[in-house]
Design a protein that fits this description.
heterotrimer; A alpha+beta (165); B alpha+beta (292); C alpha+beta (755); A: 165 residues; alpha+beta; Ubiquitin-like (UB roll); 2 domains; 5-stranded mixed sheet; 5 helices; 35% helix; C: alpha+beta; Aldehyde Oxidoreductase, domain 4; 7-stranded mixed sheet; 6-stranded mixed sheet; 19 helices; 28 strands; binds flavin-adenine dinucleotide; binds FE2/S2 (inorganic) cluster
Chain lengths: 165, 292, 755
C-alpha cells in the first residue's frame, strides 16, 4: 500500500536514487523526470518531448532502461533509480563516455545522457552487439545532430574495448 | 499542454485483490495504469479525462507467464521485453515477440504491457493482430471472479471493448497448437522503428500437400478495430496457391479493409498495402520462404 | 607547438566532457530564486481582428502576471530586417500561432489551465495559405501585394536563346516546410537587477540579434541589456530569430512581475509556433543544345514566407543565387519572390533557401538528360563551371576547382556505373526495385553579397591574469563545434597547444559582436579574425621584448603575465575588412555573391519496396571540397548530421497544415529518422585551399543539406522509371502515382521539345 493516501496532495515518498535513499515531497502523478530535475537537481536527465518518443529522459529503473517522462513518481517508489550522474564511477560507463567523446558522438549534447544510458543498457544485455543491434537498441533515442553514425561507431568501439580489457 | 499533477489522484495498492476491491467500490471511477505508455502520453498532452488512477504496474499476479500443457497464459502485466525474452513464447508464438519488437523503442518495450495494448484498444496496436491470428482468449477478473472471453470478439468498436467497469484483463491465453503453422508478420509504419503502424499484418497458415488447410489473416490500422480478413481467408482456404489466387486474395483483402484518412496516412494507401501484404504472405508461403 | 599540428587534427570537443557527463548547463537546467514560469496565449485563428479578451472563471487571476501589447515599454516588434512582426498582437492577428497575451505564475502546472481559460473573440478575416493563393492576390495580407521581396538576376540575353535551342525543357519542383526539430526546445530566462538592467539567458544562436531586439522592445540602451547564451541543444537555424521572441516575452513578464521569469516551450508549442524551412516552388525553362550544353534558361523561384517578413528576403537571396547550381549558364534570368501567407513565419534552417532551389535544379538536370538521351553524369560534366567562367551574378570562378574530377571520383566511390547497369538488368519483375542517383551542387560560405561588409564583425582574444588566452566571440556552439574549431584556430595562430586556449561563454557583456552564427561563416570569417587578433597579440609581446621567435607555452604565459603587470590586460580585437576584390552590387545582384564556395557531388542508392511503396536509402556517398578541414571528426559529423536531416526532408518529414496551423506537432506524428532508418553514410573530403578563410577553410555546416534530396529522387526515378518532383516524397505519393498508371505515361511528357 502506498504511504500516500490522498493522491491529490503532495506527499512524502522515499526514492532510491543513485544508491542513495532520498525522501521527496511530490504529487504521486508528478513525472519522475520532473522530480529528478526539479526536486533533486539531477539535470543531466533531459526532456525532449515529454511523450516517450525521444529518449532524452532515459534513466535506469532496476537496471532497465525507461523514459522518465512517462513514469509517475509513485510508480518509481520501490525501484533503484540510476541517472547519468550516478553512473560516473562505473568503469564500463566511463569507457562508453570516452568513446563518445573521441568519436564525435556528442554534438549539441542534449540527447547524449539518454543516448549513453540506452547504449549502456544495450551493452549490459548484449556485450558484443552487431551494428544492426546497436541501431535497433538506440532507435528509441532521437538525435537530430549526428545522423547517429558516430554514435553507433562509439558504441561499437566501447564494446570492443570492453572485451579487449 | 501539460496537465497539473495536483489535479490527479494516484494510488498503488500493491496487490491484485486490493486493486480489485478499489475498482469495485466505485466502478468506472478509477483508471488502471500499468506501464503508463499510453496513459502518460494522454496525461502529458492534457487530454486524460480520468482524474483518479490506480497503479497495476508490476503486480505479481499480472506479471508472469504460465506454461501449461495445452495453453500458455501470459499475464496482462507482462512487458514487451518479457515477451521477447520468453523461450516458449518465442518458439511457439513467434508472431507475438515480433510484434513486441516493433513496439516503440527499447525503453517503451520495458514498460509497455500487453494488457495495456489490448485495453487501450487502438486500431494500430501492434500485438493485436497476432492475438487475433492465434485466436487468443482473455481472462478477465473482477472482485466477483474470473471469466474467459474470446479475443476475436473483444473489440466492439473504435476503442470500445467488452471489458466491464471494475474489471481487469488478467491474462492472455494461447492454445499450444500452432507447431504446424507457418507465420508471417509485417509492420508498415512511417519509419523502421518507433512508429505507429499504418498497416500491420499477422498471419498463420497450415499447408498440407500444397493445399492451404487453415489460414488466419489479421490486420491492424485498417479498420476501427483489429480485423480478421474472413473473406480473404475463405477464398484461400482449401486452395493451392497460384498467381491468380494471389491476385484475387490481394484484391479481396484490400476490399475487406475499412481504413480511413488521417494525419498518418490515407485510406487508399492502407487498403492497397493491406492487399499487398496478404499477397506477399501467400507468395512466400507457396515459395516455402517462411518457417513455422 | 609547431604550426600545422593543430589544424586538421581531431582534437576532442572543448565542451565535450561536460556533455558526456550531463554537467553541461542548458537553459532549462538553470533556476533563479523566486523565478516564475511564463506561458503564451496564442491566436488559434489564421487572421482576424481581436474584439475582446476575457478571463474565464475558476482561476485566481491575481496570482498571475499578465502582459499584453500595452505593457511594452518600447516598440512592439521583434526587430530584425523589417520591424513588421509584433511581439504581441495588438488588435489583429495574422497567423494561428500569433502571441496575444502572456501569463506567468510560480507553479508551472497551473499555466496550461490558465492559458485555456483566456478566451479571445475575433472578427475573422479571410486568410490565404498557399503560394498560389498569395500570388493571386485574392486577399492582401501584407504590404500592397503580399510580396516581401523580389529578386531579379540576369546574365546575357536569355530571350534570344530559345530560337537557337535544340530542346527546351521545362519542369516544376516543390519542397515542403521542414521543422528543425532540435531536441532541446526553445526557452529563455529573463531577470531585471536592482539597477533595472535586463539579463536574458537563452538557448540561441545569435546573442546580438536578441540584444538588438530587446533594446528596441524595451526602449533601453545597449549597456542596460545583456544576453547570455546557455549550452544550446541543437539549433540548425531554428534558433537564429525565434529566440528574440521568447526572450522578449520573458523580459516583459519579468518587467511586469518584478521577478525572474522562465519560458520553456513544450514540444507541441515549439513545433507549431516556431519557424520552419520555407516551402518552395521552382520552375525551370531551359534551352539546351543537342550536345547537352545549356544555352540559357529562365528560373522562377518562389518561397512561402508566412505571415511576417522576418528572414525571408535573405533566404530568398541565397536560394536565388544557388538556383543555377555549379553549372555554366551563358545566359539566365532568375526571378525570385518571397510571398506572405497566414502561417507562422518561416525562417532559417540549415541551407537557407539553397536546398530548395538546388532540389529543383538537380531534378531538372536529370530531366534534361532524359530528354537528350544522355546519362545524368554526362549532362552534368558537359555543363560544369570551369575556373575563369562566370556564375549567374557575373562572379568569376577564381578557384582552381575541377568539378569533372570531383564527379569522376564520386562515380568511382559509389560504383555508380556498375550499379546502374546491374539494377537496370535486375529490376524487372522484382518486388523491390533499386536505383542510383546523383546530385552536384555548391554552397556559398558566409553572408550573401555585401552582408559581411555590413556586419563588420569583431572577434578577438584576451589573456587572463594567469596568462591563459580566451577566445572572445559571439559565435555560439550548438553542436557544430564552434568552440573547438575556433580554439584550434586560435591555438595554432598563437603557437600554443589546443588545451591552452579557452573559450568565453557568449555573453554580450563580455564578447564583441562577431555576427550571427549562421551561413557557414564561423570558421571562414570569424576564424580569420581570430588569426589576425592572435598575430596582434604576438606582435605586442614581441615588440616589447617579452617574447622571442620560438617559445614554449610556459614562456608565453610568463610573457603575458609580465605584459599585464606593465600595460594592463592583454586583449586584441580584429574587425572584418572586406577584401578589395569582393564587390557586390545589391541593386542589380551583380558581383561576388560569396567569398568562397564549397563544392560537392553526392550519390544515393535506394530500394523501393513495391509492397509498401516505401523508399529506403541503402548507400550514400558524400564527396565534397570544403577547403581545409580544421577538425576531421567534427567535419565528418557535420556532413553525417546534415545528410541525415536531408534524408528526413526528402522521405519522412511532412508538416501537415490545416488553415495555417501544423496538425502533427508531436514527435510521434512528425517523423524524423531514427538510427534504424539511415544507411551508412560515406563521407569524403577533397581539400582545395581558399584565400579568404582561416587556413583556407570554407563553410561546411549547410552544404550537406543541399544534395541528398535530388540525389534520392533521381535514384527513385532510376528505380521506378517514374519522375517525382515534390518532397517530401512519402509512400502514399508513390502508391498514388503507381496506381494512377504513371509508370506507363511517357517519361518525357513534361518536357517540350522544340522549337
Ligand atoms: C514512444 C511510444 C511508442 C509506442 N509505440 C507503439 C507501437 O509501436 N505499437 C503499439 O502497439 N503501441 C505503441 N505504443 C503504445 C503503448 O506502448 C502500448 O499500447 C502499450 O502496450 C501500452 O501498455 P501500458 O502498460 O503502458 O498501458 P497503460 O498506458 O498503462 O494503459 C493503457 C490503457 O490500458 C488500460 N489497462 C492497462 N492494463 C490493463 C489491464 N491489465 N486490465 C485492464 N485495463 C488495463 C489502462 O487503464 C489504459 O486505459 C507506444 C507508446 C509510446 C509512448
Ligand atoms: S522526454 Fe521522455 S522520451 Fe522524450
Ligand atoms: S547531439 Fe544534438 S541531438 Fe544528439
Amino acid at each position: 500500500m502506498s504511504d500516500c493516501p490522498q493522491g491529490r496532495s503532495k506527499c512524502e515518498m522515499a526514492l532510491r536514487v543513485n544508491g542513495e535513499r532520498i525522501v521527496v515531497r511530490a504529487y504521486p502523478m508528478d513525472r519522475l523526470l520532473d522530480v529528478l530535475r526539479g526536486e533533486l537537481g539531477l539535470t543531466g536527465t533531459k526532456e525532449g518531448c515529454g511523450e516517450g518518443e525521444c529518449g532524452a529522459c532515459s534513466v535506469l529503473l532496476d537496471g532497465t532502461l525507461v523514459n522518465s517522462c512517462l513514469i509517475p513518481v509513485l510508480q518509481a517508489q520501490d525501484a533503484e533509480i540510476r541517472t547519468i550522474e550516478g553512473l560516473r564511477s562505473d568503469s564500463r560507463f566511463q569507457e562508453l563516455q570516452e568513446a563518445f567523446l573521441e568519436l564525435g558522438a556528442a554534438q549539441c549534447g542534449i540527447c547524449t545522457p539518454g543516448m549513453l544510458l540506452a547504449a549502456f543498457h544495450l551493452l549490459t544485455k548484449k556485450p558484443q552487439p552487431t551494428i544492426e543491434e546497436i541501431r535497433e537498441g538506440l532507435a528509441g533515442n532521437l538525435c537530430r545532430c549526428t545522423g547517429y553514425q558516430q554514435i553507433v561507431e562509439a558504441v561499437a568501439e566501447a564494446a570492443w574495448r570492453g572485451t579487449a580489457v | 499542454m501539460r496537465a497539473h499533477p495536483g489535479d490527479y489522484e494516484l494510488v498503488a495498492p500493491g496487490t491484485l485483490p486490493a486493486v480489485l476491491s478499489l475498482l469495485a467500490q466505485e466502478p468506472g471511477g478509477w483508471l488502471p495504469i500499468a506501464g503508463g505508455t499510453d496513459v502518460m502520453v494522454q496525461y502529458a498532452a492534457g487530454e486524460l479525462p480520468a482524474r483518479k488512477l490506480v497503479s497495476i504496474w508490476n503486480l505479481p499476479e499480472l506479471r508472469r507467464i504460465e506454461v501449461l500443457p495445452n495453453e500458455i497464459q501470459i499475464g496482462a502485466g507482462c512487458t514487451y521485453t518479457d515477451l521477447r525474452e520468453h523461450e516458449v513464447v518465442s518458439r511457439e508464438f513467434a508472431l507475438l515477440p515480433i510484434a513486441a519488437s516493433w513496439t516503440g523503442g527499447i525503453a517503451n518495450q520495458n514498460r509497455g504491457t500487453i494488457g495495456g495494448n489490448i485495453v487501450n484498444a487502438s486500431p494500430a496496436g501492434d500485438s493485436l493482430p497476432a492475438l487475433m491470428a492465434y485466436e487468443a482468449e482473455l481472462i478477465l477478473v473482477s472482485i466477483r471472479g474470473e471469466r474467459r472471453v474470446p479475443y476475436t470478439s473483444f473489440h466492439i468498436d473504435y476503442r470500445k471493448t467488452r471489458l466491464a467497469p471494475a474489471e481487469l484483463v488478467r491474462a492472455v491465453c494461447l492454445e499450444r497448437r500452432f507447431s504446424e503453422y507457418q507465420g508471417y508478420a509485417r509492420k508498415v509504419g512511417p519509419r523502421r522503428a518507433q512508429a505507429i503502424s499504418k498497416v500491420c499484418l499477422a498471419a498463420l497458415a497450415r499447408l498440407g500437400d500444397g493445399v492451404v488447410e487453415d489460414i488466419r489473416i489479421a490486420m491492424g490500422s485498417v479498420a476501427p478495430v483489429p480485423l480478421r480478413l474472413r473473406e480473404t481467408e475463405r477464398i484461400v482456404r482449401g486452395q493451392r496457391i497460384d498467381p491468380p489466387l494471389v491476385q484475387l486474395a490481394r484484391r479481396t483483402a484490400a476490399a475487406e479493409t475499412r481504413p480511413i484518412d488521417d494525419i498518418r496516412s490515407t485510406a487508399r494507401y492502407r487498403a492497397a498495402v493491406g492487399g499487398n501484404l496478404v499477397a506477399e504472405f501467400l507468395g512466400r508461403l507457396s515459395a516455402g520462404k517462411i518457417k513455422g | 607547438m609547431k604550426n600545422g599540428d593543430i589544424i586538421g587534427t581531431p582534437v576532442s570537443r572543448k565542451e565535450g566532457r561536460s556533455k558526456i557527463t550531463g554537467q553541461a548547463r542548458y537553459v532549462d537546467d538553470m533556476a533563479l530564486p523566486g523565478m516564475l514560469y511564463g506561458a503564451t496565449v496564442r491566436s488559434g485563428i489564421p487572421r482576424g481582428k481581436i474584439n475582446r479578451i476575457t478571463f474565464g472563471p475558476g482561476i485566481d487571476w491575481h496570482e498571475f502576471a499578465i502582459v499584453t501589447a500595452r505593457d511594452i515599454p518600447g516598440k512592439n516588434c521583434i526587430s530584425l530586417i523589417e520591424d513588421d512582426q509584433p511581439c504581441l498582437a495588438d488588435g489583429t492577428v495574422n497567423h494561428p500561432e500569433e502571441p496575444i497575451l502572456l501569463l506567468a505564475h510560480r507553479d508551472r502546472g497551473l499555466l496550461s489551465q490558465a492559458v485555456r481559460a483566456v478566451s479571445v473573440e475575433y472578427d475573422p478575416l479571410p486568410a490565404i495559405f498557399t503560394l498560389e493563393e498569395s500570388e493571386r492576390l485574392s486577399e492582401i495580407i501584407w504590404g500592397s501585394d503580399n510580396t516581401f521581396k523580389t529578386i531579379l538576376i540576369e546574365k546575357g540575353d536569355v530571350d534570344r536563346v530559345w530560337e537557337q535551342a535544340d530542346h527546351i525543357v521545362e519542369g516544376e519542383y516543390r519542397t515542403g516546410a521542414q521543422e528543425q526539430l532540435y531536441i532541446e526546445t526553445q526557452g529563455a530566462i529573463a531577470a531585471f537587477d536592482t539597477d533595472g538592467r535586463l539579463t536574458v539567458w537563452g538557448s540561441l544562436q545569435c546573442p546580438y540579434y536578441v540584444h538588438h531586439a530587446l533594446k528596441k522592445l524595451c526602449g533601453m540602451p545597449a549597456d542596460q541589456v545583456r544576453v547570455v547564451q546557455m549550452e544550446t541543444g541543437g539549433a540548425f537555424g531554428g534558433k537564429e530569430e525565434y529566440p528574440s521572441m521568447i526572450a522578449a516575452h520573458a523580459a516583459l513578464l519579468a518587467l511586469k512581475s518584478g521577478k525572474p521569469v522562465k519560458i520553456i516551450y513544450d514540444r507541441m508549442e515549439d513545433m507549431a509556433a516556431t519557424t520552419k524551412r520555407h516551402p518552395s516552388r521552382t520552375r525551370h525553362r531551359t534551352a539546351v543544345a543537342k550536345d547537352g550544353k545549356i544555352l540559357g534558361g529562365e528560373i522562377e523561384f518562389t518561397i512561402d514566407g508566412g505571415a511576417y517578413e522576418t528572414l525571408s528576403p535573405v533566404v530568398l537571396s541565397r536560394g536565388a543565387i544557388h538556383a543555377a547550381g555549379p553549372y555554366y549558364w551563358p545566359s539566365v534570368r532568375v526571378r525570385a519572390k518571397a510571398v506572405a501567407t497566414n502561417a507562422p513565419p518561416h525562417g532559417a534552417f540549415r541551407g537557407f533557401g539553397a536546398p530548395q532551389s538546388l532540389f529543383g535544379l538537380e531534378r531538372h538536370m536529370d530531366r534534361i538528360a532524359e530528354v537528350l538521351g544522355l546519362s545524368p553524369i554526362e549532362i552534368r560534366r558537359r555543363n560544369f563551371l570551369q575556373p575563369g567562367q562566370t556564375m549567374t551574378t557575373g562572379q568569376r570562378v577564381e578557384e582552381e576547382i575541377d568539378l569533372g574530377k570531383l564527379l569522376d571520383k564520386a562515380v568511382e566511390l559509389s560504383d555508380y556505373q556498375a550499379k546502374k547497369q546491374k539494377f537496370t538488368g535486375e529490376n524487372q519483375g522484382q518486388d523491390c526495385r533499386k536505383g542510383i542517383g546523383i546530385a552536384a551542387f555548391l554552397h556559398g560560405a558566409g553572408f550573401t553579397g555585401a552582408g559581411e561588409r555590413h556586419l563588420g564583425s569583431v572577434a578577438g582574444l584576451e589573456v587572463t591574469a594567469e596568462g591563459t588566452p580566451r577566445v572572445l566571440v559571439s559565435s555560439t556552439e550548438f553542436g557544430q563545434g564552434t568552440e573547438t574549431v575556433l580554439c584550434q584556430i586560435a591555438a595554432e595562430a598563437l603557437g600554443l597547444k589546443y588545451e591552452d586556449v579557452g573559450f568565453a561563454q557568449p555573453d554580450t557583456a563580455v564578447v564583441p559582436n562577431s555576427g550571427p552564427t549562421v551561413a557557414s561563416r564561423t570558421v571562414m570569417v570569424v576564424g580569420r579574425l581570430l588569426e589576425w587578433a592572435a598575430r596582434d597579440i604576438r606582435r605586442k609581446l614581441t615588440s616589447c621584448g617579452l617574447l622571442g621567435e620560438g617559445y614554449s607555452p610556459e614562456e608565453f604565459r610568463t610573457a603575458c603575465r609580465a605584459y599585464a603587470a606593465e600595460h594592463g590586460p592583454l586583449r586584441s580585437l580584429a574587425q572584418y575588412q572586406p577584401p578589395d576584390d569582393l564587390v557586390w552590387d545589391e541593386e542589380n545582384y551583380r558581383g561576388a555573391a560569396y567569398a568562397a564556395y564549397a563544392w560537392a557531388v553526392y550519390v544515393a542508392q535506394v530500394t523501393v519496396d513495391l509492397a509498401t511503396y516505401s523508399v529506403s536509402v541503402d548507400d550514400f556517398v558524400a564527396l565534397q571540397e570544403v577547403g581545409r578541414v580544421v577538425n576531421p571528426v567534427l567535419a565528418k559529423g557535420q556532413i553525417l548530421g546534415g545528410v541525415a536531416q536531408a534524408i528526413g526532408f526528402t522521405l519522412f518529414e511532412k508538416v501537415i497544415w490545416e488553415k495555417g496551423r501544423m496538425q502533427n506537432s508531436q514527435m510521434t506524428n512528425y517523423i524524423m529518422p531514427t538510427s534504424a532508418d539511415l544507411p551508412p553514410i560515406r563521407v569524403y573530403f577533397e581539400e582545395l585551399a581558399n584565400d579568404y578563410g582561416a587556413h583556407g577553410a570554407k563553410g561546411i555546416g549547410e552544404l550537406p543539406m543541399d544534395g541528398p534530396a535530388p540525389a534520392i529522387l533521381n535514384a527513385v526515378q532510376d528505380a521506378l522509371g517514374v519522375p517525382f518532383d515534390s518532397i517530401p516524397l512519402l509512400p502514399e505519393d508513390i502508391s498514388e502515382a503507381l496506381s494512377a498508371g504513371a509508370a506507363k505515361r511517357s517519361l518525357t511528357s513534361p518536357a517540350k521539345v522544340g522549337p
